[in-house]
Amino acid sequence: MTISYDEALRERIRAHVACHQRRTVTDPSKRHAAVAVVLVDSEVGEDRVDPAPVDEWIGGRPMPEANLDGRMVDVSGGAAFLLCRRAIRLSSHSAQWALPGGRLDRGETAVDAALRELDEEVGIALPGSAVLGLLDDYPTRSGYVITPVVIWGGGRLDPRPAPEEVVAVYRVGLHQLQRDDSPRFVSIPESPRPVVQIPLGNDLIHAPTGAVLLQLRWLGLEGRHDPVDELEQPVFAWK
């Protein structure tokens, strides 16, 4: 069942985030970044074809599971969030899933950075009044502390991704975060912490993006205050 994109949802998410005791991370060894969790409207069936050249990227390599081919299809419908697939030419984390965002410029707040990166990466300019609140900080293995900023888009919006950074922007229905098989937790020998996986479409979203999306579900939709900052990233994302 899709989730209606309406004022009741906006108020529910805003209220859940407002009453949350936000967990912050202060680590002078890490740089500060912000991501935009943009909530928009979407239509069922508008995403039956993935615009990214997935077959070319896979190059015949076997997939970890039979139903995982890397495509983000059949996920739209109702209230949704914007998810980006990073460009293949980027020097780090190329072709991976991400929320619009990046490091803070000197003197910027997390809100300022999230709104600026949203405009620069996907061509969407929104005012500070659209911000519903902040989720918990997430410290990454690659040396960042990420602050997620939840933003109400106010409609469908029209993403215009910057091709040097983003291959495509997807509208993923919030109901997809509540799949029966989500979240998944796996163990790895390199860490005592569980690696979080969020199944979406025909792929798995890992932390840090996966951790942010899990808190969007737990806190934003369900009012749960469970921490996500100790959930592990897969080893390929440590650099």
From TrEMBL:
GO terms for MF: 8-oxo-7,8-dihydrodeoxyguanosine triphosphate pyrophosphatase activity
Cofactor(s) listed in the protein's UniProt record: Mg(2+); Mn(2+)
Domain Nudix hydrolase, chain residue ranges per copy: 30-196
Membership in a protein family: Belongs to the Nudix hydrolase family.
PANTHER family per the UniProt record, alphabetical: MITOCHONDRIAL COENZYME A DIPHOSPHATASE NUDT8, NUDIX HYDROLASE
Higher taxonomy: Bacteria, Bacillati, Actinomycetota, Actinomycetes, Mycobacteriales
Coiled-coil segments: none
Main EC class the enzyme belongs to: hydrolase
Annotated Gene3D superfamilies: Nucleoside Triphosphate Pyrophosphohydrolase
Protein name, as recorded: CoA pyrophosphatase
Enzyme nomenclature, EC number: 3.6.1.55
Keywords assigned: Hydrolase, Magnesium, Manganese, Metal-binding
InterPro entries to which the protein is assigned, alphabetical: CoAse, Nudix_hydrolase, NUDIX_hydrolase-like_dom_sf, NUDIX_hydrolase_CS, NUDIX_hydrolase_dom
